[in-house]
Structure formats: structure tokens, C-alpha cells
Amino acid sequence: MPVRWPDARRLRRVAGAVAVLVAVGAGAAQEGVRPGLDVGTVLGGDGEGGFERAVAPRDFVFPEDHGPHPSFRSEWWYLTAHLRDDAGRPFGVQFTLFRQALVPPAQRAGGEGAPEPASAWRTGQVWMAHVALGAPESGHQAAQRFSRGALGLAGVQAAPFAAWLEDWRLATTAEVGPFPLELELAVDEAEPPFTVRLRLEAEKAPVPQGENGLSRKSAREGNASHYYSYTRIAASGEIVRDGASRPVSGLAWLDREWSTSALDPGQEGWDWFALHLDDGRDLMLYRIRRGDGSVDPASAGTLVGADGSVRPLGPADWSLEPERYWNDGAGGRWPVAWRLAIPAAGVDGRVTAVRDDALNRLAVRYWEGMVCLEGTASGCGFLELTGYGDAAGRVSPD
Amino acid sequence: MSLLLRAHLRYLGRERAQVALAVLGIAVGVAVVVAVDLVNASSREAMRIASERLGGTATHWVTGPGDRIPEGRYAELRRAWRAGEGHLAEAERIVPVVEGTVILPPEPAAAPGPPPTLTILGVDPLADAAVRALTPELGDGDGAGRLLAEPWSVLLDAQTARRLGVEPGERLEVTAAGRSRALLVLDTVPAGDAVLGSGFAVADLATAQELLGLVGWLSRIDVVLPEGGRGPEGLRLLERLFPGLVVRSAQTRARDLGAGLRLVDRAERETDLRALSASFQLNLAALGLLALAVGLFLIHGTLTYSVRRRLRDFGRLRALGVTPAELRGGILAEAAVLALAGTALGLVGGRVLAGGLLELVSATLEGLYERVAVGALAPDPVPWLKGAAVGVVGSLAVAWPAARAAAAAPPGLLQRAEAGEGSPRRRAAAVAGLLALAGVALLPGTGYGGALLAIGAVLLAAALLTGPAVAGLLGAVARATGSLPLGTRLVVREAVRGLGRSGVAVAALVVAVATAVGMGIMVESFRGSVERWLTARLEAPLYLRLPVGAEGADAVRAVLEERSVAGWIERRSFDDTLDGRPVRVSLFRAHGTVPEDRGLVPVEGGAVDPEAGAWLSEPLARALDLGAGDALPLLPGARSPPVAGRYREYGGGRGSLVLPLDAWPDPPPGMASFELFPEGDPEPLARALRAAAPAAELRRNEELLALSLSIFDRTFRVTGVLQTLAGVVAAVGLFGALSALALDRRARFGMLRTLGVGRAAPARQALAEAGLLALAAAVLALPLGVAVAWILVEFVNVRAFGWSLDFAFPPGLFAQAVLVALAAGLGAAAVPAWRLWRARPAELLADARALA
Amino acid sequence: MSAGEATGAQPLLRARGLVRRFRQGGAEIDVLRGLDLELRPGERLALTGRSGSGKSTLLNLLAGLDAPDAGEIRWHVDGRDFVLGELDEDGRTRFRRRHLGFVFQFFNLVPTLTALENVAFLAELNGLPDGEARARELLVRLGLEHRLEAWPATLSGGEQQRVAIARALVHRPAVILADEPTGNLDRATGDAVFAALLEAAAERGAALVLVTHDPVLAEAVDRRVELGRS
After folding, report:
1. Per residue in A338-357, pLDDT tens?
2. CB contact under 8 A, B490 and C66
3. Are B285 and B243 in contact (CB under 8 A)?
């Protein structure tokens, strides 16, 4: 459930912008980005006029829906992979490409009397990419880049499928795709630099989330996204760092989601689980936390059977309790160990972070890391946490 | 403290007047050095800030042939850079830039002159904020997001916003690429103290391209290469210690990036900005050191004199068992006290002086570079440390001869020691000769640094020779006055005899006056040459420019033909590289009747005919070692005609090249300009052109000439101030020397007064002696000054900046120099003379008895 | 020279009630307290006394180099009276130039003038037409014919004082004021120089006021006044 809401104060103001572009916390000073960015408010007011909104279930049409939906404000291609090397040591890899429109497509022209054709740079939208690597022998590494879609520097095309920002690239090797996919990430700005190369093959068909692809994020009409996932993807390749190449393999998860407006004021943050169970089932569930400490009824999940069958889950179907917190040293406490029980699915156990420090200190500050489940069912996957930032980030909305 | 040391220091306490003068001399010297360095550091800092404001931390620029490059090349370079491939793999940042100017509406009370313009800096905020501090970052008050989202939106520099009375959220009407546009001022960016004159506005790349008519194009790509690419560390330290000394990095060549793109050092591209300020800073620094040298002369003189005066005491001390080394140490201790006191005072004074100089300098720099204003002193420790080091070390160094002399005092009780006067040393002549030889030897083959050293050597040689030379001059005077009354002869002979004491001060005066003369000639030569150059450049009554990307050249031509304008020169100008060196290329064609020189002053004389071949600016020709008849290095795309000649250019370090228009069939994109020579009133023509080509910038040239020359004069006003200061130090020295002489002679004057010599005689002696010394100094300083000017004009300028100057003598310079020297001399003698006049003979005699 | 000759004549010098005070570190010291002194033309007088007794101060007052705090100094030369207190600085200077001759212990000669020039200088000051000839003659008389063009620095102490004596006499002054003229010389040289001084003064009829420590010199003159006894 990759709509990521770092903090309620921002959420209320931005309502509908890509939350990742709505940041708290101290991101490293990277190219062009200062922490606390709030692009969503650029147009003033609610800023949603002129954009399409997700209000009804959607019959996804491929390959078109693999490509961008510029009539919606925000969109992302979200890949996470938990991998192991020959020695069985765990590696977590994340690659996300975000698209954020600054103006609706209809208003994308230049100013009065602007020449035709307009400047290629007048795209009206911004692309942002995040890459993170959790490798066993060093700290969690994350990097981000921004670009406009001008001159082919960033973008996504549906067929043959490709999503890229400069030389970070996720693209099919097939005529149409999207699978088999190749991921190539050379992260020179990381210290030390690293490169990830993965070959990805889907093991299950894409699964529409929510009500046939309409994923409601609150009770309010239109606060929803279109959302589908490739829940189980076989991944293998190499991770190169410090001049050494390490073969790795494992499972990956690809989320596709686009929306214009999603959350309500009062929603504070988000705990999102995507687990590959060893028995072949895939479990996704997200819990939206309200500022008053309660769980929002819009929280939801999906259990995908080994055969691809889909079973929706609601908050009543599970019990979820944080058991241990990791202190990020900047005032943030992140729950990195959980007690999870889904009686109907025969799941009862502990979800524990493989490494506690999987905090992406980027323009947006969120925790995105590899976890494993042990108990009546077992498996590994990714956990995403937002809204646990520093004290300032948790100030209640004014 | 040992008693011996105490005795030495008490001596200083007794000789308060002399000590005060020595301290004052060193203090003024150190103060000038510190002040100049502080001001230079501040102006450098201001230049850096101004340059970094718009240029950011970029170390290099990627440019193409011509003034713009296709934007697709940026995408290629950026992708290759991300992939760690190509020439820019090492770069830290690569960002695109579109830059141009738009015309602001005329202000109500606008001064005549070219219309005010606004520089538009088009950047990609997503990438640029890491390079330029003024580019907003995403999330930074939404500036970046709104720049991206809002067409015609800009961030206006706060100063311009204030001047124009534009508030954030309001619109600003400008003329861009011939069209009227309403820019939306989202916000202001702090202009800082460093930004003046022509304002600027930051816009998104898209807006800038659309505004300036450059859709699909970039002006350049800014590149940040790692530190190492910017020249050795030692060189930069040297540059800080001796501001202006290192003018250019050692001939940085442009790197070819393929497909016509080149990577050029940004500093090299900004040499226009740097060359003049470097020349300016060099002048200031040289004058600062000169003032210090004069101050050191004083310390040297004071100590030498005090040692000679005390030789008998030292002899007694030696007889008592004090070792030479102890005596030497004692004198050095005295020197150290003087040095520390003078240096401390000088540092404080330097701060005060710097405040005053700063105003002059910032006025100068504002005049030179509209975007530079030196607002405050830069907090740079180097000038202070350097001033302190130079003051203390220099003082101890010049004290060394005196310390040695003290150590050499023969043990025993000297019978009589009439203090302090002796003949000038002969060895000086030999040393001076060697120095002068070394100076001349330095001239050929060394850089301009060698030429500067040569000036130093020549000045030092002259200083050493001053004593003997003045003695010679006065000897000649003495011979010439041989038949005059003894009283008159006595004056001359006493002056010669006093040279042992006054020689050093006279040498300081010679150096100060010579420098003033040399600088005066150089400045006058510079001014004359620049004036000739500017006059030629601005000869056309009307000048029209079409910015890059602006249409209208055909329309302009049509107007000119339709109105049968008597003559005009058309140019197409763009940046290129010649033999790896950035150059400005102008394609030239003259129509109808144009002045014979065609706006260019030839170096070799004769007329300039740019349609006969390639003409190179003098700095470029010198850098490439090209002269008439040589083959021009290859310019891709152009027929390269042979070099026809060189023309004068004082605009800056970057060379320029003029080719016939048809030498380049399909020239790279650039700016079109027209120099128009209409008959009669140019105004109707200007109106017609404005209507036909709205994008054109039109300018009347006469106003510009006067403006440029007033800026030039302002630039050198500060050098005048510093010359005066050096002169003041010399006068202080002379005052000290003459006071000491008067003191020495009190006994003798007492005796003479007793014999019946009138009370005016001693005063007359003091004044006449000072006058004679000053005249002798002036006589020596004039040829020396001419020599200094010659080296400055023929070597320093040519080597440092590649331009030659026509030697010119400012009217009345020599008379002025003589008057200045006399004023210094007589001014310095006034007080001692008055004291002598006032004293009762018995008081003078009492001194004699005390000395006995 | 007998005392009788001078009896009826007007004295060359009459000083009455001379007082001179100096301030030294806040205290006032009376160096001279109401001193009276007379000198006849041609008379040779020795002023003696301990250091600080006012010998030199008195000499300065007599020469008009310094002004007394009280008292009067009246010179009578060439039938004219010169009251120093009534003359201005220029008047006193002209008086000295014309009528007085000086010999000092130190710093006697101008170092930038030759022996001959040093002597001729005073003749020139007095506008005497044949100054150089007179100077030459005097120097020859004093045994310095071979040192005429010598610089003072190259002369011995005795030679220097002889030049000084020549200079003191070249303009035929009425009186020579000599301040320890032999104080810097050895006995033999000093005696010779002193003899030369007496002889030359007598020859030209000049009176002599001699300040000295030396009892031998003090005995050799007509009269002796010891200062600072009171």
C-alpha cells in the first residue's frame, strides 16, 4: 500500500499530492532538494482542480496502465526486493519512481504569448526516484534524484515498458513487457557507491487492490487511488560494491498506484506490510493511524493465494501490535518488531526487521526495510513506516 | 631582564622623538600594506561573491561554437556523466543555463544612456540549487515549484525590485526578444551587498527559453569539477599573499568535448572581469609594499644613526667585557621593540585606513563592474598575518647592519665621537650596480612577475645609489658655489656631510617620487591608449545590438537601405575557441562610407581593413604569437584567411578575432550588431529602427565614452591616494632625519651663534639643506620614474595583459614631482628650522657641553 | 700691562647685580646672585670656581648668549656703550660678531670648513674685505702655515685650538672669551697654546676673560675672580 504519508500536518495541507514529495525530517542535501518540501501546495487552495480523481473501480488495461496517467496528479512505480547472497546473508533493495504533476495537463502551456512549440522543459511535472540498499556489512544507504521529463531525462513508457530517471532504469527486455524486467541502478552519489543489477520475472499475474483497483484511503469520496500489484516476482542478479560483485537472488514486489487526492486530515501515518510467505501466499496489509491513536477503518489488506486467488482483508481480520522500537537519534521512534495475527489466514507470529536502521533520510523521511515473519507462518518481505519522524513531524495539525 | 638589555631599552626611552618617528614610519608602512591587502581581499571577495552569485560554484563552462548550444547536447552529457563516462565523468555537477538580457521600461528620472537591462538567469531548479545559492530548492518557500509551474514567473533580485517598486505577486513589464512580456515576480532573492547596477532575475529554464527566444537552446552548461582542477594550492596561497600577482592560471586550454562543444575554465571566461581588477589590485599591492619599504628605510636609518651616535658607549661596554654578540642582540632588541610597537600601531591604523580606502575602491569596482560592490571588509586573517610578519621581520632585517656595526665597535674609550655624520658608504654602489644589472637581466624572457621584480631591483639599486649620487650632485653644487661666501658654501657642505644621516630618508623620497612619476606616466599612457581605443570603438553615433536568439537583422538592413544611411558596419559575434583558447569572433562587413579605422586601433599603425584578412586583438595575437602574414589556426566551419594584423584591445584577457563576413558561410549562432554612421541627427533613424526591430538594443555612443573615461579616472584615484601615502612616509622619514641632524648640529650652531652668526642662519641651514636634498631627490627620481614607467609599460602590461600602451607624459608631471619633493623636504624641515630659530644660543651651547 | 694705564679710562665691561636662576627638577637654583664685575680694556681676567659655580653661565651672560634674570651688562667699545639687555637678539648677535672673540674647549671649528676657511669665515661675517689674507697671516703667525687647507678632523687638538685662537682674533675684537681653551690638551701642548693665546691677544690689545680650572693658567693672568665662594 505505497501511498506514503509521513505526517499529518503536511497531509492535511497537501491532501492528494504524492506524499513522498511532502516531506518532513532532515533529508540529506541532495541535488535540488531541501528537506521539508511541499510541492503539493504550489497551486494554492486544494490544488486538485483540473485533475482526474479515483472514484470508481477500474478495469486495468495493459500495457497502457503500466504507463503514466498524467490526468492524475501523483503516480509511482514501486519495487522492493528481499534478496540473499550465496552465504544466505540478506539484502534489501528499493527502487521507486514518483511522478508528480505541478499543473493539470490542460494548463501546461507557457504564459500569454509564449512561443509555439513551448520549451521542452515546460512539462508541468517532476520525476523523483529513490534508491535504497540494505546490505549486511554496512549501514542502510539511500539516494534520490529529481528531473523533469524533458529531453528524455526521466519518464515511463508503457510499451515496451521502461521507467527511468537518468541512468537509473527499470525496463523490460521483451517487446512489450513488462516482464521480464531488468533493473540497473548505479548509485554514484552513495558512499561507497554501489550498483544493483537484477533480472525480474513475475511469478503471478497482477492483482488489483481494494475494490477492483479502487483503493479507498478514507471515508471521503475521491480520497482513493487506483492500485494494482505484482506481488511475487523472482529476482536474481548482482550487487556491486567496493569493487566486489555479489550474486544475489530472492523475491520482489512491484506496486503501481496513481491518484489525485487520497487522505483525510487527521490521518497521521501508515504501517504497510508486504510479505512473501514460504507457502507461496503473499500478504499485503496497511494500517492507517489516526492522530487520536485509533486505527482508521479504511485500513485494508489482501491475501493472494499460491494459485493467484485474491482475498481482501479488513482491520477486523487482523491484530497488529508493535513490540519494539528503534530510535533514529533524531527524535523518531520506529516500530521495527510487531506481533501479527490473522486467524483466518492461519498467520500468528512476529514480524521483525532484518536491520533496524532502514530509514530513508531523503527529501521524505520514511522507514522502508526488509522484514521476516516467524510463527505459524513464515516468510520475508518489506515493511514501510511513515509518520514516526522526529518530534516536530508529529506536531498535531493546527 | 639583563641590565644590558635594560640599558638598551632605556636608550629608546630617552630618544623619544627618534623612536616615535621610527615607530610612525613602520606603522604607516604596515598600515598601508594591511589596508591595501584588506581592501584587495574585500574586493576579491566581493568579486567572488558577485561572480558566484550568478555563476555559482561552477568551475567550468561547456560552450559551443557560437553563443548557444542545442539543449539535446545537455541531455547527452548528463546521461554520460551519470553513467561515469566521457570527459565529464569527474564532474560533481552538471547543470544547464540559459542566460540573456531583457529591457526594462525606462525609469521616470532615468539618466541618459543605454536603457536599463535585466539579466535573466534561466536554470533548472531541480538540479541547480546545488550549484547556485540563489536558485530556490524544492520546498524552499515553494519558489522552485512555482517557478516550474508558473509561466513567465521569476525571482527578482531584491535591489532591483526595490528600485522598480515591484512587490512579490506583481507583474513587471519587460521587452524580451522584441516582445513585451509581463513577468510575474514570485518573490525576491536577496541581492546582497554584492549586486548592483543591472539587476537579475532567476527563472525556470522553460520560462527563460520562451522569454529570450531560445526554445531548444542553452547558453551554456555549468560544470563543477573537483577542487584539483583549479590550479595548485601553492599558487593560490601566493595569490592571496600578493594579491593580483597571479593573474591567470597557467594557460588553461579549452577541452574539446566533441561535436563542437568545449569545456572552458570559467575563470578564463571571466577574465574580462578579472584582468582589470587584477591590474588594479596589483597596483595597490605594489604601492602598499612600497610604503612599507619606505617605512623600513626609516627604521634602518634610525637604528644606524643611533648606533653611530653611541659607538663610544659601545666601545666602553666592550672594554668592560660585553661581547659583540651581546651588543648585536641589544640593537636587535631595540629594533624588535620598535618593530612590535610600529607593527601593532600599523595593524590598527591599517584597519582604519582600510575603511577609508574601501569607499574609494568600491566606487572604482562599481564603476568597473556593475555587479560588484565592496560593502564590507572581508574577515580574512591573511592580510593581518602578512602585515605583522612583514613589519616585524622586515624591521629586524633592516636592523641587522646597524646591529653588526654596534658589534664591531672597537673596545676602548674613543677620544671624541662627534655623533652620527659620516660619508655615504661606498659599498652601496657596488651592490646597487649588481642589483640594477640583475634587474635588467630579469627583463627578457621572464613573465610579468620578472618585470615586477626588475622594477623592485631598479628601485632598490636607486635607493642604494641615492647617497653617493646626491653627494655627487651636491658636490657639483658645492663646486659651482666655490666663489660664493663661505656662509653659502657652508650650507652645501653641511648638507653633504649630513647625508650619512639623511641619505636613507632621501633615498626613500627618491623611491616615492620615482614611483609616483612612474605610475603617473603609466596611468597617463594607459589612459591615452584606452581613450584612443574607446573613441574608435564608440565612433559610430548609433549602435544597435540584436541579442542572441532575437530576430530582426533583415529588418534592420532593410531600414538602413531604405533610408540610404551613409555607412554602417555589420558584425556577427559569437564565442569560439582558437587553438584551444576562448575567443570572441566577429564577422565584419562595412557598407558605404565608414571611418578608415573601422572602429579598430591598429597596433602597428596604418589602417585596419577587416575585409582583407583576419585581425587579431593584441592580447590574443601575443598569446598565440601570431603576426601579420601568419596563417590562422584552424577554425572549423570557417575559411581561415591569413592574419592581416593586430588591433588594440583593453577589454580584458579574452582575445577577439575579426574576420570578413564571407569567411564563415554558415556561422554559429550569435549576436548581430550594427555600428551606424548616419549623416545628421541619428534620432529619426533610431526611431525607425526601433519600430522595425523591437528586439534591438539601441545606444548613443557619446554618452558612453564620457562614462567610460570617468570610470577609468575613478579607478586610478585610489592609486593616487596610496602614492601620496608613500610620499607621506618618505616625508616623515625626512622629517626624522632632519630633526636628528638639527639635534646633532645644535652644538655647532651654538658655537656659530656665539661667534656672531645670526639666529636665522641655523634655520636657513635646515631649510636650505632640505630644499637641496629634495631637489637632488627629484632630479634623481625623474629619470628613475621614467625607467619604472618604461618597465611598467613595455614589460609588465604587455606580459600580464597582452596589451601595449603608447608612452605618454602627463603634462606638468615633472614639475609636479619636483614640487612634491620640495614640499616634502621643506615641510619636513619646517619644525626643526623653527626650533633652531627659537633657541637661545646658550641652550644650543649647553647641548654641546652635555655632549662633551 | 700695568694697572695704572687703565685707571682713568672707562672700563671695557661693567656688570652689575647679575642674577641667574635655573630650574632643575622643580627646585630653583641661583647660580649667580647679584654678581658685579668690571674689566678694563686689555685686562686679562681668570674666572675660576668649582663645577656648577656659574663660570660658564657668567661667560654666556657676558656674551649675550643668555639673559640674566636681573642685573645689567654694559660693554664699552670704540667709544660706544652696549647694554646687552637693551639690545634685541640681532643687536646682540651683531655685537658678538664684531667685538667678541671666542675659544672653546670642544666643538671649536666648523668641520665642513678648512682651517683657513674657519678663520676667514669670521672675517667674512664682519664684512672685512681682506678676510682670507688676514686669516692666512694669523695662522702663519700661529705656526700653521702648512695646515691652511686642512680639515678640522685632520688637525691635532693643539692645532685645532690654534686655529680657534686665530679665528677669535681675526676681526680684532675688544675681548676674547675663552672657555677652558686647554682643557682638552696635554700639559705641554696646553701651555704652548695658552702662551700663543696670551701673546696674540696682547699683540692686538684684546682683553681676555678666561674660564679655567687650571690654577697655573689662573695665576698667569692679571686678575682672578673665584665664583661660588659666598
Report:
1. 999 999 999 999 999 999 99
2. no
3. yes
